[in-house]
Amino acid sequence: MGRLIYSMITSLDGYAEAEEGGLGRAADDPEVHTFVNDLFRPVGTYLYGRRMYETMVYWETVEPGPEVPPHILQYAEDWRAAQKVVYSTTLPAPSSERTRIERSFDPDAVRRLKEESDHDLTVDGPNLAAQAIRAGLVDDYHLFITTSVVGGGKRFFPDDVRLDLDLVEERSFPDSGVLYARYRAR
């Protein structure tokens, strides 16, 4: 049975998406990116909303070249190998291989997907993740906390839920100031 993981870069004040500007230097740190690669290489399926999918489909197009670092090529290879499920009422067709579109988020279907999977799954993007959290589907939370305070935007956790979590792992990345924290649902 696969575990459902929710992971995103977050600001120090808990936002996964800032109203204005970026969330900090986490994505630019090769050490953080390599860690993410290793952490998510076993993922077999990514669950996306349309907006997150349109951001992530970039990885379908990454090609080797002298200016492309090995950690970027590795992530692109791993991403292309995984299945993708995109929840969208407006996206007419996927623009990547191994991708299907679902018109609505069905918690029971995701529960079955977890039960039938030999690999972990991720739910990506704060809006879609909020639906999975409310349905009690998320097993693990991986936060990559930046040094930025952004003051507003979309929160990593939805405001209307209560969760009790156990800290399972933590790590710091001194070059970027990023803190990684992995929590498991009780």
Provide structural commentary:
The model has no long low-confidence stretch (mean pLDDT 95). The two termini are 17 Å apart. The protein is built from 5 helices and 10 strands. With 186 residues, the protein is of the alpha/beta class. It has one domain: Dihydrofolate Reductase, subunit A. An 8-stranded mixed sheet has the order 5-4-3-6-1-7-10-9, sandwiched between helices.
Write the layout of secondary structure elements.
Blueprint: E1 4-10, E2 15-18, H1 30-40, E3 45-49, H2 50-56, H3 70-81, E4 83-87, E5 99-102, H4 107-116, E6 121-124, H5 126-134, E7 140-145, E8 153-155, E9 165-173, E10 178-185
Parallel strand pairs: 1-6, 1-7, 3-4, 3-6, 4-5
Antiparallel strand pairs: 2-8, 7-10, 9-10
Helix pairs in contact: 1-3
Give a quick summary of the entry.
The protein has helices spanning 30-40, 50-56, 70-81, 107-116, 126-134, and strands at residues 4-10, 15-18, 45-49, 83-87, 99-102, 121-124, 140-145, 153-155, 165-173, 178-185.
Can you give keywords for this protein?
186 residues, Dihydrofolate Reductase, subunit A, 8-stranded mixed sheet, two-stranded antiparallel sheet
How far from one another are the termini? 17 Å
And the CATH topology? Dihydrofolate Reductase, subunit A
Percent of residues in helical segments?
Answer: 25-40%
User: Biggest sheet: strands, sense, closure?
Assistant: 8 strands, mixed
* Tally of DSSP β-strands: 10
